[in-house]
Structure formats: C-alpha cells, structure tokens
Amino acid sequence: VKLWIYIIRRLALTVPVLLGVTLITFSLSTMMGDPAAPYMTEKTSPEERDRIIEQYNLDAPLPERYVTYLSNLLHGEWGFSKTIHMDVSEAVQIKFAATLELSILAFIIAVATAIPLGIFSSVRHNRWEDHSVRLFALIGSAVPIFWFALVLKYIFAFQWGHFTHLPLGYRYDAYLWEIADPIETPTGLLLVDSIVAGSWVHFKDAFRHMVLPATALGYASMATTIRLMRGNMLDVLEQDYVRTAKAKGLSSSKVTLGHASKNAMIPTVTLLGMGFAGLLNGSVLTETIFQWPGLGLWTVNSMRNLDISAILGLVIFSAILTIIANLIVDIAYAYLDPRVDLGSTVSIGEMVIVLLSFLFLGTAYADIVWGLAVLWLLQVIFWLGLIWVLIYFLAIKRIVTEVSDLWAPALLIGTAIVVMSIFKTPDSNSVFLRFIPTFSQLVLFSLLFWFGFIAMRWKSSGHLQDKHRFYSEFKSSFGPRVEEWKRMSYQFFRNPLAVFGLLIVITLLMVSLFAPILAPPSETQLERDDPNDPWDGPMRMEENFEFNHNLQPPCITWLSLNPLENCTGERGEENGFILGSTDKGYDIYYGIVWGSKTSLDVAIKVVFTGTFIAVVIGVISGYYGGRIDEIVMRITDVFMAIPGLVLALAIIAVTDDPSISNLMYALIIVWWPGFTRIIRAEALRIRKLPYVEAARAAGASDFRLIFIHVLPNCITSIIVIATMDMGGIVLSLAGLGFLGFGGGPDLAEWGKLVDYGQGHLLAGETWAFFYPGLVIALWALGFYLLGDGLRDILDPRQRD
Predict the structure, then answer these.
(1) What pLDDT score does 487 carry?
(2) Which GO terms describe its biological process (predicted)?
C-alpha cells in the first residue's frame, strides 16, 4: 500500500514540474520581439499574421497569452515547424521513434559494458587493472561525443569500410527500404518492424546503420556508469555481511557476483535512468554527425533556421521524457530497496500545490476564460502567501531583532553584485551597472578588507605588542597545517592518474598564459583590438583568403626527425601551417593556442558564478529545510527536467544573440540547479551532526552555524565538483561551438575548429578536426583526473 501511495504521489508531483516547464518555454517565447514569430514562416502574409495574432490571443495581456498558450499545448497545437513543413506535434511523433531506437541500443551497449567493468575494477582495487578501467571511464567522460563520433566514422566507415561494411550515416539504405523491397513500418522502430516483417535483410541493414552512432552515444553514459558501479562495489565489499560470507568459506566469485553485485546495483539504477534521459543531450550532437533523422538533428536544423515553434516544442517534449525517465527510476529504486523511506505522509503544502495545478490544467483545457479565473486566483493566493510570510517572520516570529539578523538579505544582494561584476564589461551602458565594481576590483577590495579585519583583531588583542607571543602562537597554529599539507601532498602524488591530470592542467594553463608568445598575433589583429570587447583582437582568427577551400597540411609530422625543418613561415608555417589550416584559411595551431584562453575564461566565469549561486542557495536550503527547502527543490526540479544542451540551445535561439556572453548566461542557467542539489544534500547531512546541535544549543546564530560550521564541511564537495566542472563546462562550450553557436565564425574556439574540419573527413584531411578535438579531450581529462585526486585527499573516507 505504501508503494502505491508513493507512486501516486510521485505522479501527482510531476504536474507542477510540467507547469514550471511551460512557464520557462512561454517566457522564452516572449523574449522574441514578435510574439507571432513561433507561428509564422517566410511566406506568411500580413493578413495571415493578423489572423494568427487573433487566433492565439497574441495581442492580449501576458496572463491571458499564457493561458491560451497552455490551452494550445493541451490540445496538441504546438505550432508549425518551418524546417520540415509540418505541425510540431506531428513531427515529434515521427522523429521520436528514430531517437528512441538509437537511445535504446546505446543504453544497452553502455549497461552491458559498464556493469562488468565496474565490478572487475572494484575487485582489482588499486592495481593496474583498476587504474586502466578508471582511465578508460574518465576518457569516456572527457572525450567530446561529436569528436569521438567523427573518429569512429573515419576509421570504421571510411578507412575500414570495405571490411566492416558500416555506412557513413543516415538511418537506412533508402534504395532497399523505399524502392527495392519496401516493408511496413507501423512502429517507426526499424529493428522491431524488420522482425515483425520477418526480413533479415532489413534488420541487418538497420542494425549496421545504428552501430556507430549508438556506440558513440553510449560511450559517455558507459563511462559514468562504470565509475558509479565501481564506487558502489567498493562500499559494499567493506560491509560486515561480505566479510562474514568470506569467513564462512564462500569463494570470492560467489561473494562478489552472488551477494555484493546485487546490492551495488540498487544505487546504480538511479543513474541508469538519469543516463537514459541524458542521452537526449548526446543525441543532438551524434545525430548531427551521422545525419540521423531524429529529434537531435531536427533540433539543430531548427536552431539554424530560427524555427522557434519547433525549438520550444522540443524543449517541452524533452522535459516530458526526462520526467518520465526519472519517475520510472524513482519507482524502481523504491521497489528494489526496502530501506527507502516512502514518505507515506503527504504535507498540506504538497496537496494544495498539486490540487491547484490539476485545477488550473483542467480549466485551461476546458475553456480559456475559466483558466484565466483560476490563474487570477493563483495570483491572489501567491501575493497573500507572500504577505503572510513577511508578517510571520517580521512581526510574529520576529527573526529581525538586531542588525546581525539581516545577513540573509545582505547575502542575497551580495550574490547578485558578485554575479553582475563577473560579467560587467568596460562598455556596459546600464546606469545600474556603472555602480557595480568589476570582478577584479571586488576581489581586491575583499582581500584588503579581510587583511584589515585580521590586523585589527590582532591589534585589539595585544598580539602586536608581544612579538614573541605572536610568533610562537603563529608557529603553533601554522605548524599542524603544514603537516596536513605534507600529508595531502604525499597522498596526492601517490596517485599516478591525479599527477597525470595535474600535469595536463598545468600545461594547458601555461599555454593560455603564454599564448601571445606561443602564437603571436599579426599586426592586423592587434590593430583591430577593442579594449571594450574582450573577445576581439587576438581572440579572432585571421582568415587567409589564398587558402580558402584549400586546406593546407601540417608542416609537423609525427615521423619528422626535425619537426620544424619544413616550417619556415612567419609563425613557423610554409604554405600550410604548423598543425594545418581549415577550409576558411584559419590557422589551426593559432586557434588551439588562443582557444585555450577562450575555454579558460568561459570555464572560470561560469564555474565561479554557478558555484557562488549554488553554494548560497544550497546551503541555506539544506540548513533550514522545511518549506524553504521544498520551494528551492521544486524550482531546481523544473530546470533539471529540461536536458541542459537543449535548454542552452533554446535560450540562444530565442534571444537571437550567439555571443560568448549570452552563451555563458545560458550555461549558468543550465548548470546551477544540479550543483545546488549536491550542496543542499551535504548541508542536510551536516546540520544534524552533534557539534552543530551543540553550537545551536549554546546560542549560536544561524549565520554562524551556516558559515562557520556547516559550509566549511561542504568545502570538499565544492572543490571537487567545481574542479571537475571546469572540464564539463568546456565540453558544453565546445559542443555549442561545434553546432555553430557562440562568438562568431572567427573566434578562436576549439569546437568551431572541429566543425570546420568535419566536412573534409572523407578527403582524408584528418588534421582539420583531429587536433582541436584532442585538445578538448585533454582539457576535460586533466580536470577530471585532478578532481578525482583532490577527492581522494580531501575526503577522509577515500584515504588509505
């Protein structure tokens, strides 16, 4: 009975999340200048535009437009896609079958490979086999999926195609399926339809077309599952019942496969569902490479055509798929693990939110007027609730009794100032932004304030007058820290993978720092350098018109005894360039070197801003719990329901501004919810520890409890996740650049260079895409390995 109540509850809670998703898509649609744009094509006449505005209430106030928009969604009227010239709702049904079939095969490949490797790695813990599997998994997480797909396509379909008989792309052999021997495809799943029709020829053809894209799509999911399965197995193998089984004489294989692996699989179920939903992100890139006619390729084509109806429809449909996948995982997890708290008691707040959501959806579906009435009621409830909260905390609860109680609003204001300072540029025209310091000024002011504060404390305590006492106390407090640093350094350098990652990171950071020396910009690039635009001047690659559509090979070869003997140009090139050129005449070497500055700048700004937001919101949500926590988690649920890459593409599309700054905003919006949930979970765990309870009983304020006791104990997770996300953000940046979005065509960015090179794959000019993709993989791999190493030395549970 409890399980059924849990299932019904989870089903009901998906409705408010879906409403939140529709609010996001509606907000995106209103960001466009013309509200009728999502429903128009190039051939729409002024009369037809007026009729569209009248039909969809586009000249009405925003509340009425939202209710009309929601009513159209519920009735299946999702707009018209000018990319493929059909209704969006109909196109989704057709395209979804292709993406679903590809995702299922990729999922099977990932699970069938990852679980045995994860078990094997845990059994051979800290041996060379374990390090090899871990490196294989980390490479899978670090390699850009679009670059890996190009490598697979070049090797197995082009170079070895006469042996493998694997096609270069598309979903099937059009001649076989449409002319020579057409069969019925009622499900749209070609493998299933081939089996139903009893045709081995069609089944083999469909499967051959799926092998390479499914392998490329499944590798990243496989890598994440390996790491989770290995970690779960290591935890289980340390349990008492495993030791007891071994003491009774059971063989290691019996204990591992018969007992440990089954219990380790339970937490893995959660990631498998999330991984399947995450395949939607990968399908956007994979389908583009192999021209697979699914949702991913349609998304990219819609972006390039500014097909807003299709983009918003795909955002909603992707969110529905993600919610369904997570719902199935939650139910399966609750069924498999009896220790899961099913939470049979339902809060009044949840009941009210769910009932109002169902009421709003029902009335919007039935009649727009009724929907408007309910929306008006919801607005009244919201404002009354907000007024009640203010009265309760300010007058009844009286949380503000002294100046120190104002820390929460001050912290929120400070967070907003930090975020705006990071993205402030010298040419910011906003009157408000003129009073916001730049990020460097803010850091300098904070450091001066901190040192001044420390100096005043030492002076008031009399330490400066007694120098002997000052030095002795300084040494006694600093000595243990030095010993702790020595211990951590020893632990870190014992890990060969962590050291390898540190070397990669240092190398790439040095390349970014010394870019003007390693790849000097030309006089033309220096002359057009705009001090108000950080992405101008040397950050823009110079087009060599004499080499347009005439790729120049690298003058450095792996077999050269003297690699630079043939490189005699101004920057070491002769006809071609050090690492070759693109079809636009861009120097690949120059793009890689200066692209490191682009990647570093974007990664630091996005990670720092997202971390700052996530830490502030997550630690407050976890510490207070209750209603505050419920509100924050429901907001993060809405954002996490939409696949990150799809949401980022939608934001860039509707704003029609593919600049790097806008791309960074999109990445922050996509990135902060997941980090917030992790910090919130840590804060929930720490707030219940005895020393926090003791400090609370002693009268410590909430500010002191959160920032002196709770937050410092979250630092391990913050450092590790932020370090690893330095690699993840660059992978996302490269993916968007590969699709052609962000910063313009001449910006030095690694993903763009891979995109320029993919068109010459069949000509054997592999340098055009290979070197930039390799650098992306090394960047991500370096930070992933470094993050793993930091976790091992910062987390006491990971120490040997």
Answers:
(1) 74
(2) transmembrane transport
